[in-house]
Amino acid sequence: MAGVACVEQILRHSPKFEITIFGDETHVNYNRILLSSVLAGEKASDDIVLNGLDWYQHNGIDLQLGVRITGIDSQAKTVTGDDGSVTSFDKLLLATGSVPLIPSIEEVKKEGVFVFRNLDDTRALLERCRPGIKAVVIGGGLLGLEAARGLQVQGCDVTVVHLMETLMERQLDPTGGGYLAAKMNQMGITVLLGLSTTAILGNGKVEGVQFKGGGSIPADLVVIAAGIRPNVGLGHEAGLEVKRGIVVNDYMETSHPDIFAVGECVQHNGICYGLVAPLIEQGKVLAATITGNRGPKYQGSVQAAKLKIMGVDVFSAGEIGDKLDGSEVIRYEDPALGIYRKLTLKGGKLVGVILVGDTADSHRYMDWLRTAKDLVPLRRQLLFPAPAEDTGIDIAQMADSETVCGCMGVTKGTIIQAIHEKGVSTLAQLKDCTRASTGCGSCSGLCQSLLKAVVPEFEEEVKRTICKCIPVAEDQLREILRSQQLKSVQEVLEIYGNGIGCEVCKPALSYMLDMLWCGDHDEDRSARFINDRVHANIQKDGTFSVVPRIRGGVTSPDELRRIADVADKYRVPMVKITGSQRIDLLGVKKSDLPKVWADLGMPSGQAYTKGVRMVKTCVGTEFCRFGVQDSTSAGIEMERRFENLFTPHKVKMGAVGCPRNCAEATVKDIGLIGQEGSWQVVVGGAAGKKVRKADLLLTVETTEEALTAAALFFQYYRESANYLERTYDFVERIGIEKVRKETVYATDTAKQGLLERLRKSKERSSDAWLERDSPRHPTQFIQIQPLEEVFV
Amino acid sequence: MKETKMESKRWTRIALCGDIPPREGRAVKVGNREIAIFNLGDRFLAVDNRCPHKSGPLADGIVSGTTVVCPLHAWKISLETGEGVNSASASSCVETFRTRVEHGVILLELADDYREGQADVMQELPVMCVETRGTPTATESRPAT
Known about the structure:
Chain A is built from 25 helices and 37 strands. Helices cover about 30% and strands about 20% of the residues of chain A. Chain A is elongated. Chain A is α/β, with parallel strands linked by helices. Chain A has a 5-stranded parallel beta sheet. In chain A, strands 20-21-24-23-22 form a 5-stranded antiparallel beta sheet, with helices on both faces. Chain A has a 5-stranded mixed beta sheet with strand order 31-32-33-34-37. The relative contact order of chain A is 0.06. In chain A, β20 (about 305-310) and β21 (about 310-320) form a beta hairpin. In chain B, the strands form 3 sheets. Chain B has a 4-stranded antiparallel beta sheet, with no helix packed on it. A 3-stranded antiparallel beta sheet of chain B has the order 1-10-9. In chain B, β9 (about 100) and β10 (about 105-110) form a beta hairpin. Helices cover about 5% and strands about 35% of the residues of chain B. Chain B is built from 2 helices and 10 strands. Chain B is mainly beta. Chain B has helices at about 110-115, 120-125, and strands spanning about 10-15, 25-30, 35-40, 45-50, 60-65, 65-70, 75-80, 95, 100, 105-110. The chains are: A alpha/beta, B mainly beta.
């Protein structure tokens, strides 16, 4: 990562080099910081690629993947690869990074023991982890905690074992560590502190972990994340000065005039850096030096760390100890909210900051640290800024020199310059052009606010209103309707709208009221689209299509016979198998609908409405020789649990009995993907106007757990999405991490609430086609005949 | 009542008020054609039940004030004038019919020849509104809603 980032800078200075890059991994360079997101299923391995193959080609770089350099001859200026190749160089850049530190633990080489350092490690872990298995992470630092969270998302029962008494002790003081441990516990991750792991138990395969003093815990999987050490082997090989890392000076030069080093493998001024921002700074200096523009100096970095676990906000920068001479410490704690802030000041300047529970102000503190700002005049506003007159003003108040992206070292000024000079107008372009927001990604909000402020055409994410008739943002409107106990569309329009309404807002309000009151609202059919008045889909000639419910696509000879008879009796012009494993009778007259339904004797398939469509299934273990889960029964059960309900937009689901995915569950709104011994529940997939692979919500062991996870998401979508917002837009807008946090990882009370409201709605719902016997209105389906004979 | 032979009209008893729920429409078969009658709460309005765009059944549309929105492509038609009111539909219009309520019965004023179902030829021609709304727009385009 550091090496290629430096090459990017070199290319900016001068294209004159003929560049060859060797890497022992077989992937193009990727964003190592986001490996934990890959483990947590938030990102695919392709998503974290920093420079694709085309980038290397475009820049004329010879990329040698999977080749490990084993020898350097610094006299002859050649490098030797493990494939036997010898390559000569004018300048050599070492960016060998670091290797995991393996503590001295007995019998560490066992099946089921992993490190967590690169993409291959991550993939191996993903293959190994299964819901319900016991995972032990050794190491309670940044990496260990992120790995723990990733494993937990995959369904593992996770314990973190840490040698020290404080989690992240290099970034946090004991109090801050305590707050963090409490958060981890709250998320369901067990934290064991002050325990030294002495042995891995088990016969060839991990069975447990033993501690000093004799205690032990069971484990099916162990991840060692006890830290890293600079990978300096090649430095020795080249005869460079090596201490802990390869020693470099302020110009990033080693003890050899033509060999340079950058990143985690170097030691500058006695310090080895393991976080991304310093490495990027080093790369910039080195690029200048190596291209003959020697001048810029690297003068060390303020170390700042941010934990990337959704819902566990931790930020730390600078000094953390209390015992700094002449320093003063300012603290704020709120145990109930889990918020801890600690600032360390020296000589009126900030030298250290710890934030747990709320890291919104990290940019402000980071700027104070970097610029050594005189804080004497700000003394009263250290912990909390003076209330801004307008919350949107923060971005305007930032100085141009202030850093927006801490990882890549991009300032506000650079971003504004890119916007003005290079015509940048989207976040994607900004990333390409400045590299901002390509590290940990936590500054993307800030980048977007900047774009919003500077680019006139930037599409601001405005609070969505339904239409002009009712000028209240949709989420606000839901709250109003709930608190004001409004139950009819007309009432809502009269009080909060123009009293009239239109074809856009009336169905939207109808949905909202039905959802909010779990079906106990005043249903007004005049506010429904024709399809929802007559429970069939209107066609271009004014006739309707009829799709009976065939749960999971499983039907019977008897049902098929009835369908055939109906088609004959009512002269149905077209009988069609749909893409959803159902049968569509097209061209039915409105007045025939109730009779058709009665003759079919099957429930409505809701193919005409914004509601629960169907669950597409494969035959699973029932018949398929590859099936590992009974997807047919699971799918039918899911359809049964959700059918007859309305949703913000149509909901199509799928259940497959093995990862071959024959019923395409990965492109459904909700999908169940059977695996050996578990189910993956995926959400937000699409194969329509847009094609999108569904995101992993959760992996669970049993079908019941999978159905519950699906139910939590289903109800959350019903309650939180905008009307006509498909799950794939909803999940993308909200972000899968937040979706998880509010559904499968929500508090028990919140989960119970969702399930209870779903249960209530379900209880009040019914098969719409039963209106054949008791229509809402006498003329609902019939054509009126004039009272008076028209023909005279 | 009789002014010229062609314009001979007569009030005809069509339906009970209760047949049409508030803010909904219903189609009535009159001769070979259908007329859509809407209940606006304070009165009933009637138009030809064929959207000038693609002959959509207007009676099945959602009522918005004194307009109806065709269920097929959301053309918006004024129930008072029969004219299209959003941009795409602005140059077209449908025939309107006068209505009256007597003792809970809705009456329509129908031309004699209409009642006798002999208006087929006339009906096939789109009724163009002659007014100053600018150039007619292509009927294929979907209205901006």
